[in-house]
Design a protein that fits this description.
The protein is an alpha/beta fold and about 450 residues long. Among the domains are: about 1-80; about 125-225 and about 340-445, 3-Layer(aba) Sandwich (Rossmann fold), CATH 3.40.50.150. About 45% of the residues lie in helices and about 10% in strands. The chain is built from 19 helices and eleven strands. The strands form three sheets. The chain has a seven-stranded mixed beta sheet, sandwiched between helices. Strands 5-6 form a two-stranded antiparallel sheet. Strand 2 (about 165-170), helix 8 and strand 3 form a beta-alpha-beta unit. Helix 12 (about 265-275) crosses helix 15 (about 330-340), helix 13 (about 280-295) crosses helix 14 and helix 16 (about 340-355) runs parallel beside helix 17. The longest helix is centred in the N-terminal third of the chain and has 23 residues, at about 90-115. The radius of gyration is 26 Å and the shape is elongated.
């Protein structure tokens, strides 16, 4: 039943509609036959042969097999159906059946995740390079702004008899930080919160501005988030589309499935295009909207992957290691960034680093995609407008505009001096050992004013 239904819903993505033919429209005739098949009272033993016949006829129509007899007058993306036409596809009985079936599926997902290992051992990225540039020293104070599983923090503590503040918005990471604090008494202070909550957290423990010797950012998801299916970050593991790094700490924070259920088509398009740089953002957004009318709200990771795959039927994408990559990777990235407000938090974190570091304090950042790295790069270069990374690469785009050197220096004034002239990337050996490090980009800077 479910397999047959998935075949039809995927096919609807490329199904053109010609409303000018009225009752003579072959598409309408086949839609009615599909509806009749799914209205069968015997949901379990649905007539697969009938479904296959209707599917083959519908596929011929979608591929314009009858182009000589039935000329297309409308070449539409996605289904091309109105809301009313979408609702004709399934009967109320079938919708109720699928809802009950989905409840059973979700219970099975939760049961399976409860009996699996929550996450694999986390491997910190570019660990040696981070320590080389951070140069931990005795009695100095550092902040690990993205504690995660604590790989970088542990290495900092092992490198020197220093003190460390650990910040993370994930309660799971916060619990791990408290265990690390027990291993290193009086040296580790765990903090739970986002970058934007840091000023109040530091005030509560008596830490003032210009009092930190070094700050480390390791942006993106940690392995323990990616490898836990019910957190909703993983493409390969089925689970609810949650994606909140806070893990529900803020009850008002929207989840990924709520975004997909409430955002309109244009809003979804902007999320996928801007945050994911997805080339098929428009088609995917439109298909998600139609899926909401035809089936139900998208609630699990595998449902979203199926939707995206239906929009990219002939694509075969590769990652930077030339390994097969899911078509949904950029869509998942975009949703995660939007749900967690990551880019705004990143920008605010860079501003805080400027205020809380001592003179000659060191800043280390590890980014995993261009959106993050661009913000960091422009903060270090001084390409800032009102404490925000300039959205365009250059301030002055007119070749006829001439400014004196003093004005240019004022606009490009930066409190940072880059330590590494060019961005550093992981070695081939590290990428082979830890493929998740393949996209890492490290930048290091010293606060000079």
């Amino acid at each position: 039943m479910t397999t047959q239904y998935k075949k039809f819903t995927k096919l609807l993505v490329k199904w053109p509609v010609d409303a000018t033919k009225g009752e003579r429209d072959l598409g309408k005739f086949i839609r009615d036959r599909v509806k009749a098949a799914f209205e069968s009272e015997d949901k379990v033993n649905l007539d697969s042969e009938l479904c296959n016949r209707q599917y083959n006829s519908l596929n011929k129509l979608a591929e314009n097999h009858y182009r000589n007899k039935y000329k297309r007058t409308q070449h539409s993306t996605a289904t091309g159906l109105s809301t009313e036409e979408c609702q004709l596809i399934l009967s109320t009985h079938v919708l109720d059946y699928l809802k009950e079936e989905n409840k059973v599926l979700n219970r099975a997902i939760l049961h399976r995740n409860a009996h699996t290992k929550p996450y694999k051992d986390h491997t910190p990225v570019m660990l040696n390079e981070v320590i080389k540039h951070l140069k931990p020293s005795k009695d100095e104070l550092y902040i690990d702004m993205t504690f995660g599983a604590g790989g970088h923090s542990r290495k900092i503590l092992e490198s020197a008899d220093c003190r460390l503040l650990t910040l993370d918005r994930d309660p799971v990471a916060y619990e791990k930080a408290k265990k690390l604090a027990e291993e290193y008494p009086n040296r580790v202070t765990p903090l739970l919160g986002k970058f934007s909550e840091l000023p109040s957290l530091l005030k509560n423990i008596g830490i003032n501005q210009s009092s930190i010797d070094g700050i480390l950012f390791d942006f993106g998801c940690s392995s323990m988030q990616l490898d836990t299916g019910d957190r909703g970050f993983s493409i390969s593991k089925n689970g609810y589309l949650d994606m909140r790094m806070d893990a529900g700490r803020d009850p008002n924070q929207i989840t990924a499935r709520e975004v997909l259920a409430t955002a309109n088509e244009h809003e979804l398009y902007k999320i996928f295009k801007i945050y994911g740089e997805e080339k098929k953002a428009a088609k995917i957004a439109q298909t998600i909207i139609h899926a909401r009318y035809m089936i139900k709200n998208i609630e699990t990771t595998h449902e979203l992957v199926d939707i995206v795959d239906s929009c990219c039927p002939d694509e075969f994408r590769l990652d930077k290691l030339q390994r097969p990559q899911s078509n949904a990777t950029k869509v998942f990235q975009a949703l995660r960034i939007f749900v967690n407000n990551e880019l705004n938090e990143l920008n605010y974190g860079m501003v805080l680093a400027k205020y809380y570091l001592k003179l000659n304090g060191r800043l280390l950042t590890v980014c995993f995609h261009s959106l993050e790295d661009t913000i960091v790069k422009r903060h270090i270069a001084g390409n800032i407008i009102n404490e925000t990374a300039n959205p365009v690469p250059l301030r002055y785009l007119s070749p006829m505009l001439v400014q004196d050197q003093e004005t240019i220096n004022q606009f490009l004034d930066s409190p940072w001096k880059a330590i590494n002239k060019h961005v550093e990337v992981p070695s081939d050996e590290e990428v082979e050992r830890n493929p998740r490090s393949r996209s890492a980009r490290l930048r290091a800077a010293i606060k000079i004013k």
